Please model this.
Amino acid sequence: MDGIRGDPHLSALIEEHGELELAPAEDTFGRFVTSIVRQQLSMASARAIRERLFDRFEVTPGALRDADPEALQAVGLSEGKATYVRNVAEAFDERGYSPEYFAGMDDEAVIEELTGIRGVGTWTAKMFLLFCLAREDVFPVEDLGIRNGMTELYGIEERAAMVEKAEDWRPHRSYASLYLWRTTD
Model:
């Protein structure tokens, strides 16, 4: 992680927050559903909806695939997100998604596979790479927190320039992302 430690802004965050770890999710499906819930919501709203969803439902592909859409909406999911959660559940159930399923795929292939599911965009697929598969070189420039961190630390406002700057941190851009999120926490 020399590229990250050599960056004065990130090294200060490392000193402040300590070594941050990436670990594969124990419950890949549940973590992916959490990413769907978090799409375009504040963390507080997403947390409340996630708690209600996980309290009311067994969060498994079979249970959410068969869940009544109105019951999903009753916990706070929009009509669209209720559909997206069911689409993801169906894909997990039909394709047998697991860390082993994706093990031989590069990041772009995983993104392509997942964005083929209606309701899963690039941001959600990158969250899967980071938090479900613990891939080390993911830079989710689509994330508002990442963009805010880049602007705060580097004064960069254009996405293309952010992606270019993140090349300095290759092959550990996921770790840099974890620290960038800390700037806005």
About this structure: The longest helix spans residues 79-95. The mean pLDDT is 94.
